[in-house]
Amino acid sequence: MESITIDGKIFTLFLSEDEILKRIEELAKLIAKEYELKNPIFLCVLNGSFYFTAELLKHSLYNYEISFVRVKSYDGLHSANEIKEFIGLENAIENRHVVIVEDIVESGLTTNYLIAKLKEQNPASVSIATLLFKPNKLFHKELPIDFIGFTISDEFVIGFGLDLNNKARNLRDIYQLSEE
Ligand code: IMP
Ligand code: MG
After folding, report:
1. What are the tens digits of pLDDT across the range 114-149?
2. Eight-state DSSP code of residue 62
3. CA 43 → CA 38, 64, 72, 135, 180, distances in Å?
């Protein structure tokens, strides 16, 4: 499928499932190298990163711990500039190595908020693995984004977990908003 229309907006194919899966396998290896002996907790940031987290951790031979949190800051095509919802984090993370698994980091607002919450529990370390990264929109430049799948331009993307108004998350490829 070369293009798809969601809520009246046209999106064109941007990253194919093959490319995405190949890159995630590479990231999984990099992460394993650093974390295999550290008994890490992976924190899947719902909803967007459910595909990415599953794919990333599927490659692992180690007994990783996975937890889920939900942080919401986005409305439609635009960042709401404030955190609207935060739930989850039931595991004790004191003295543990935490890897936040995100679908996309844009302004960094969501991840920055999450890190502040985690630090209240004194983890041993916190790092970020994000499938997509939009560097031009990054506001929180000090974030420890150690693992990046793809660095992309500012256009809105959907698929492989990413949504527009909760639609298109299930698409296996990633699509980018076309110029009108
Ligand atoms: P940030 O807080 O500005 O870094 O935005 C992060 C959150 O906004 C992500 O976890 C996504 O849920 C959402 N988001 C940002 N850009 C996009 C996009 O292009 N498509 C879909 N969701 C996005
Ligand atoms: Mg998200």
Report:
1. 999 899 999 999 999 999 999 998 988 889 999 999
2. S
3. 15, 11, 15, 22, 37
| Chain CA centroid to CA 150, Å | 11
> What pTM was estimated for this model as a whole?
0.93
Q: What is the mean pLDDT of residues 7-19?
A: 97
- Segment 23-40, tens digit of pLDDT: 999 999 999 999 988 999
Q: Which residues line ligand 1 (CB under 6 A)?
A: 48, 73-74, 79, 102-111, 156-158, 162
Distance 86 CA to ligand 1 centre (A): 15
Cα–Cα distance between 132 and 137 in angstroms, integer? 12
Distance in Å, CA 73 to ligand 2 centroid: 8
CA-nearest residue, atom 5 of ligand 1: 106
- Considering every ligand atom shown, identify the ligand nearest to the alpha carbon of residue 78 and give its number: 1
C-alpha 96 to ligand 1 mean position (Å): 27
The Cα-based distances of 26 to 73, 110, 142 in angstroms read 29, 25, 24
Dist CA 119 CA 134 (whole Å): 25
